[in-house]
């Protein structure tokens, strides 16, 4: 099987991974049928996690490993969960991918792994304080396409917020792989960040303060 990462890219990622601190485990969720990009996503994760001895991966089938799919709230395939790994136990930071992280989103995957390995969201203190005051769950879905250069900024910000707060779950959604979901949320441009299943949304890459304001507006509206 031909490698997805050429030697140059693999070496660049390997160099980036020299800054990894704690262990990270990537959970792959697929299914046997009706999953066009499952094989590609699994191969990508295998190649990436092979680039550092601090990285691990595990494989689940959403139709067989139903308890794991429910535990990690995964209902789309291919699906990825980026977790911390300590003493053989997994730490779920609420970081999800629905669809293959290809194109510009490959950089999101690499940044997320580094982020989780450092166990620090790197958010501003103002944002950390805002998230610490949350009293109800917040779901963020960031719709992207592989050719969108601004999408990784929105994906990483959502994932940083998920990492900072146990009440936040953030999912990258590859818009073209999930057209029905994209249509339901009226996705006409990317990145689009949808909050709490449509209670709020933002189009375009925005700063922390703007996403915080929309989360606040959306949760107050409920």
Protein architecture, described:
The chain is α/β, with parallel strands linked by helices and 222 residues long. The chain folds into two domains: 7-118, Glutaredoxin (3-Layer(aba) Sandwich); 125-221, Glutaredoxin (3-Layer(aba) Sandwich), CATH 3.40.30. It has helices at 7-16, 38-49, 66-71, 105-118, 125-132, 151-164, 179-184, 208-221; strands at 23-30, 55-61, 79-86, 89-98, 138-144, 168-174, 192-195, 200-203. An eight-stranded mixed beta sheet has the order 2-1-3-4-6-5-7-8. Helix 4 (105-118) packs parallel to helix 6. The chain is globular.
What are the key terms here?
globular; eight-stranded mixed sheet; Glutaredoxin; single chain; 2 domains; 222 residues; alpha/beta
Seen as an oligomer or otherwise, the chain set is: single chain
CATH superfamily membership of the largest domain: Glutaredoxin
The profile of the biggest β sheet is: 8 strands, mixed
In spatial order, strands of the major sheet run: 2-1-3-4-6-5-7-8
Secondary-structure-based class equals alpha/beta
Number of folding domains? 2
Fraction of residues in β-strands: 15-25%
CATH topology of the largest domain: Glutaredoxin
- Name the helicity range: 25-40%
> Could you give the distance between the termini?
50 Å
Number of DSSP strand runs: 8
Mean pLDDT: 97
Q: What gyration radius follows from the Cα positions, in whole Å?
A: 17 Å
Order of helices and strands: HEHEHEEHHEHEHEEH
Shape verdict? globular
Please give the CATH class of the largest domain. Alpha Beta
Uncertain stretches: none
Number of helices: 8
Which second-level CATH architecture of the largest domain applies? 3-Layer(aba) Sandwich
């Amino acid at each position: 099987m031909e490698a997805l990462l050429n030697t140059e890219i693999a070496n660049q990622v390997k160099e980036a991974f020299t800054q990894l601190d704690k262990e990270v485990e990537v959970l792959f969720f697929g299914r046997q049928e009706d999953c066009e990009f499952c094989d590609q996503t699994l191969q990508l994760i295998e190649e990436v996690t092979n680039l550092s001895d601090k990285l691990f991966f595990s494989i689940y089938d959403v139709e067989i490993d139903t308890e794991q799919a429910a535990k990690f709230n995964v209902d789309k395939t291919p699906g990825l969960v980026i977790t911390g790994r300590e003493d053989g136990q997994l730490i779920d930071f609420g970081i999800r991918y629905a669809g293959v992280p290809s194109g510009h989103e490959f950089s999101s995957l690499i940044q997320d792994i580094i982020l989780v390995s450092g166990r620090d969201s790197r958010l501003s203190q103002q944002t950390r304080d805002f998230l610490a005051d949350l009293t109800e769950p917040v779901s963020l879905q960031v719709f992207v396409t592989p050719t969108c250069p601004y999408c990784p900024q929105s994906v990483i910000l959502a994932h940083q917020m998920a990492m900072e707060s146990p009440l936040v779950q953030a999912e990258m959604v590859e818009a073209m792989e999930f057209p029905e979901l994209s249509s339901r949320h009226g996705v006409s441009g990317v990145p689009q960040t949808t909050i709490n299943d449509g209670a709020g949304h933002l189009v375009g890459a925005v700063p922390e303060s703007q996403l915080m304001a929309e989360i606040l507006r959306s949760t107050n509206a409920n």
